[in-house]
Amino acid sequence: MTHKPDLLFVLLVAFGLGVLVTLFVPVAAGDPVPAPASELQAGVIIDD
């Protein structure tokens, strides 16, 4: 005998997957701050 899953259970599973995706996507993305393209952007002052 098959029965339709409860709507509450389906919503809880969807919510749990959304929380897991929200937590793990920034970790998988790597370094969020790109490296500066030049010394001027980095704020490095070189005295000659």
Give the averaged pLDDT, no decimals: 78
- Radius of gyration from CA coordinates: 23 Å
Helix-strand category: mainly alpha
What's the overall geometry? rod-shaped
- Whole-Å distance between the termini? 83 Å
Question: How much beta, percentage-wise?
Answer: under 5%
Q: Count the strands? A: 0
Low-confidence stretches: none
The number of helical segments is 2
Order of helices and strands: HH
Question: Helical proportion?
Answer: 55-70%
Q: Please summarize the sheet with the most strands.
A: none
Structural write-up:
There is one protein chain. By secondary structure, this protein is mostly helical. Helices cover 56% and strands 0% of the residues. The protein starts with 6 loop residues before the first helix and ends in a 6-residue tail after the last helix.
